[in-house]
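User: Here's a chain of 201 residues. Predict its fold as tokens.
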Amino acid sequence: MPEADEELMQKLQRDGDEAAFTQIVERHQRGLLNFFYQFCWDRPLAEDLSQEVFCRLFAHRESYSVTAKFTTYLYRIARNLWIDYVRAHKNRPTVVSLETETESGMLKDHVILKPRVPHHEPTVDEAIQQSELAERVQKALDQLPAEQREVFVLAKTQGMKYAEVADVLDIPVGTVRSRMHAATRRLQSLLSHPDHRTKEP
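Assistant: Prediction complete.
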């Protein structure tokens, strides 16, 4: 039976167990990548930020207490890092289009919200429809207030329970529920009326 994250952290704290740290990275790197991608829509940046989370986790491993759930601790680091990044750059990160070719010729891909790839090869029309839907979802998420967006990302794309989201954000569960309700309602409205660009107050 695989060791729990909390047990791996204890090994890391007690013995500096690099194998334990490697397991933690392998277990959570995709989730962190997805988390950051929902905010910046930039795959290389999301990768850099994910790596920085693990660097901070290792550097401050002694501050972790097994009384706290590991994912709560990890995503607090991730959220604080994102806040630091936004403050450092002041302006909101540029939103990139899905499947947009970069100067190097590489394609930026959509990790979580891109529609599931069907088992058959999509026709040209199907591929266009999938791309258009993913771009609509991206633009809708970009119009959510920050506090609604982070709740939505943690609960929906990271699969956290409301109590876990509340722990990460250090807010009451009731506030998580209300923000999630507002975010869902707003996204439904934006996806139903894609030409509506104005944020709700």
